[in-house]
Specification:
With 164 residues, the chain is mainly alpha-helical. 70% of the residues lie in helices and 0% in strands.
Length: 164
């Protein structure tokens, strides 16, 4: 070990993993709120579509073709309804994507939490703890989950390429 290298402790890596799990949980809460908003929008748009369809088709027993002179504003605008339906489907796709991201973030947060317990129970020193964290983050592609901060894995990878 170089004299210039800082002394690493298991406790620092335990705290780092707790912080990462907490950040991931915060992201999950944000994404869940966004998904809830989208679901509310979907409910509102679906209700609007139903409302437009109700009452306009109650009296129809079969296909009716109104005459061009017989427009009283109660006609169903099929193109507009198709556009609303496409918007609902797009939002449903966004909700499904958010739910998949939420599951991935929750899984990684649980992994960090499990790693905390492993480090606390059987990591002998800070260097071993760091290696375990680097291996974990590499295996789980952790940097992809943190846009605004650098992971231990990224720091270790950049220090490996920086050295001669």
């Amino acid at each position: 070990m170089d004299e210039d290298e800082p002394e690493l402790s298991v406790g620092e890596f335990v705290e780092y993993c707790r912080t990462q799990a907490g950040l991931l949980s915060g992201s999950v809460a944000t994404m869940a709120a966004e998904a809830d908003e989208l679901l509310d929008d979907i409910d509102e748009e679906t209700a609007a579509i139903r409302q437009r369809l109700e009452g306009r088709t109650d009296d129809v027993e079969g296909p009716v073709t109104p005459s061009p002179n017989d427009r009283d504003g109660t006609e169903i605008d099929v193109a507009e309804l198709e556009e609303l339906e496409a918007d609902v489907e797009e939002k449903q796709t966004l909700v499904e994507a958010k739910q998949a991201r939420i599951a991935a973030f929750q899984e990684l947060a649980a992994g960090y939490t499990d790693l905390v317990e492993e480090l606390r129970s059987d990591a002998d020193d800070g260097r071993e703890a760091m290696k375990r964290v680097v291996r974990f983050e590499s295996q789980h592609d952790a940097p992809a989950y943190f846009d605004d901060r650098r992971t231990v894995y990224e720091a270790a990878a950049s220090s490996d390429t920086d050295s001669p």
